[in-house]
Design a protein that fits this description.
This protein has helices at about 1-15, 20-30, 50-75, 80-100, 110-115, 120-130, 130-135, 160-165, 180-185, 185-210, 215-235, 240-250, 255-265, and strands spanning about 170, 175-180. The protein is an all-alpha fold. It has a two-stranded antiparallel ribbon. α3 (about 50-75) packs antiparallel against α4 and α4 (about 80-100) runs parallel beside α10 (about 185-210). It is globular, with a radius of gyration of 20 Å. Residues about 1-5, about 5-10 and about 30-45 have low confidence and may be disordered.
Length: about 270
């Protein structure tokens, strides 16, 4: 128990240098630093300002919201396509979390490498969206008509397989036949992915609302970015979050105000 308490204390107090953050991301993605290939100009350009990062962050959230909306409109007649749109929306949401962790590096030489390290890594992006659950674990649950909760989670081995099954005709080697998305996609997995995206997006929009509040928007984002980076790069579990938030709030009155305002806007159980 003492060992666990010490780990949580380390998580709450540890500050990541840019080199540490990049090194951790390399470990997460299973790549060595020397294998990282820089993107050629003009995409890889000069140091990014806060406003440039904020523009990308806002557009990522907006695109996730639009993909959710489009998926919901197609849910009935074209459910198989809706699944792919929900999965793409979750990728964009994961990208927005990377922006949150990158704000602390704005106007520094390392920001582009940190941001674009996994820019096209679909697996990394879709899983980073789940980090919003650390901020708010509240989920939507669906009953099956018998008072039983439908099990959440994907039915496929990997999340990005949902997107492939949604848009492409595949060949089933076991059945020796071609399978269309309409035949392959189950309604329960469409509902699961849509419900997951809805919950995660709601938390993400609450975070944006709090950080946008007041005149010190840039300060808010850079303060919260330190927390987002720790959630991204360190081993943190849901049970650690009360201590993590408490430690964050004690750093200054501005930190405390962010935590207090998050508690006000995030939905609570039963709401």
């Amino acid at each position: 128990m003492q060992q666990a308490d010490n780990r949580v204390l380390d998580v709450c107090t540890q500050r990541l240098r840019p080199s540490q953050a990049l090194g951790t991301l390399n470990k997460i993605s299973g790549m060595k630093r020397r294998k990282f290939r820089k993107i050629e100009p003009p995409f890889w350009t000069a140091m990014m300002t806060f406003q440039q990062l904020y523009d990308g962050y806002s557009k990522s959230l907006n695109n996730a919201e639009r993909l959710l909306s489009a998926g919901l409109k197609l849910f009935g007649e074209y459910s198989e396509i809706a699944l792919g749109l929900f999965e793409l929306g979750q990728e964009e949401l994961g990208k927005s979390f990377t922006f949150l962790a990158a704000f602390i590096f704005s106007d520094t030489p390392v920001v582009e490498e940190f941001l674009f390290k996994d820019w096209k890594n679909h697996r990394a992006k879709v899983h980073r969206a789940f980090l919003y659950e650390l901020i708010s674990p509240l989920r939507v649950v669906i009953e099956n008509g018998k008072g039983e909760y439908i099990k959440r989670g994907g039915v496929r081995e990997k999340l990005h397989y949902e997107k492939e099954a949604s848009f492409y005709v595949n060949y089933d080697g076991k059945q020796k036949k071609f399978i269309s998305p309409q035949e392959d996609i189950q309604s329960v997995e469409v509902g699961n992915r849509g419900g997951t995206l809805l919950c995660l997006l709601n938390t993400a929009l609450c975070v944006k609302k709090v950080l946008d509040d007041g005149e010190g928007k840039e300060t808010n984002y850079k303060l919260f970015s330190d927390l987002a980076q720790r959630l991204l790069c360190l081993e943190i579990y849901q049970q650690d979050m009360p201590a993590v938030f408490e430690s964050f709030a004690k750093q200054s009155p501005k930190h405390a105000r962010i935590v207090d305002n998050l508690a006000k806007v995030l939905p609570k159980s039963g709401e």
